[in-house]
Amino acid sequence: MTLKTGLKRVGLGAALAMGTALPAMAQDAICGTMGAGGTWIGGAADTSDLNTLTDPFDQMSLIMSGGRHVSYFTVSAQTDVRLEAESSDGGDPLVEVYDEAGNFVNSDDDSGGNLSARLETSLAPGTYCMIARTFDGSGTTAYLRLGRDDTPALTAGMNPDTWSDPDSGYTDPWATSGTCEFATAERPFGEAAIDFSTGPVTISAVPNNSPYLGFTLAEPTALTVTAANPSADPIIAVYDGNNTWLAENDDFDGLNSRIDFMNTLPAGNYCINLRAYNDGSLPVDVALSTYDPAAAMRGMIDRAEASPPLDGSHPVTDLGALPARHRADIQATGAAATWFSFEVTDTGVVAIEAVANGAADPVLVLFDDFGREVAFADDSNGSLDPIMLSRVSPGTYVLALKLYSTDSRALVRMSFESFTPAGR
User: Where is the secretion signal located (predicted)?
Assistant: First the structure.
């Protein structure tokens, strides 16, 4: 028996899971701060290896507003994997992958076509977490598929020629042809191998005019590739000198793109396929730099994807023991989250609001002292202002306030309220 989705069929044997913004049950930490509340895609660690599966793993996930779904899986050998999320109700799912230590590996938003996520990447042996959430924080029912590149796909991909429904009418003028030839690509980074001794190398390119950008590495390099201009909404794909696809990204940081090759790329020639989802006539800043784990962690903290350590190395405003009500006015930005810590002395509920009155789109993310994400809040009551309600236990909590658009600034009024059960 099968359950029909918008484009595909998923067996009823697939697990039904719910992503919520409530605290997860205590369990061994997998993927550091990012894996809280997850489940093994195959039911257990020894049955969740993508190398040994015959058919891909399927799940149906009910992702609540502000929530996410976390799937654990393993690969026992270097493997080309395909990780997908498709909404059944018009939502815009995205997927992110983290390694066992909680380091970001890769992400995708719309490469599956029709707002579906489709991340195709090569993974080294190890344990990983796939996080599925929506781009705008709204709720959705998503069909998830975790498999290899040689197992059947759930989504159609960006190229409309591959759609299973020929009457869909979908066209994508920015769809990749699946090639990026170094021999015919432009060389805006120079004909010689990239010299990283003085830092990142940045060029400006217009996607409609210069879609193929070649560069050369003189030695094995852990590399970061970024493309920035939110008005263009760039998409980047990287190929090696043999025209082999390596990785692709859209909307890593707001509408900007980023690919981190944490494992070193061999010396040789490479090609970047640069596209724009919104406006390909606008210039995009494309930068190459050596991968910096510390900078990557700072970026996760600035994007509120991970909480900062409470050792003074990152600015955090300590509110102390949370009173019944506390109010603060904050000059918030989208470039970096503003962080607060507070103490909860009794089991209860906290209510946190951030009000920008239409001047910006605030987002709130709450973590416990171990770094597990406890709650997430974006829009509420028909406005862009979030209201967060979360059950809490005695302990320290860390809260991030950031603005949705990376280039926005606004004065945000925040309210913190704590409630304890009657009779305590």
Answer: 1-26
Residue bearing tokens 């003085």: 198
Which residue bears the tokens 């959430």? 133
Residues 244 and 277 in one domain: yes
Which tokens sit at 237? 């794909």
What distance in Å separates the CA atoms of residue 47 and residue 67, rounded to the nearest whole number?
26
pTM listed for this prediction: 0.56
- Domain holding 58, by residue range, is 32-148
- Give the pLDDT score at 166: 38
Asked if 124 and 196 sit in the same domain, the reply is: no
Is residue 165, in this structure, part of any structural domain at all?
no
At which of 148, 174, 209 does a domain end? 148
Q: Based on the fold, state whether residues 135 and 51 are members of the same structural domain.
A: yes
Query: What is the domain-level CATH number for residue 317?
Result: 2.60.120.380
The CA distances from residue 200 to 25, 224, 250, 291, 337, in Å, are 42, 9, 20, 10, 24
User: Quick check: helix, strand or coil at residue 227?
Assistant: strand
* pLDDT attached to residue 404: 84
Tell me if 71 sits within 8 A of 59, measured CB to CB: yes
pLDDT in tens, 2-54: 233 333 333 333 333 434 333 333 345 688 777 877 889 998 999 999 999 98
Tokens 């809490």 locate to: 392
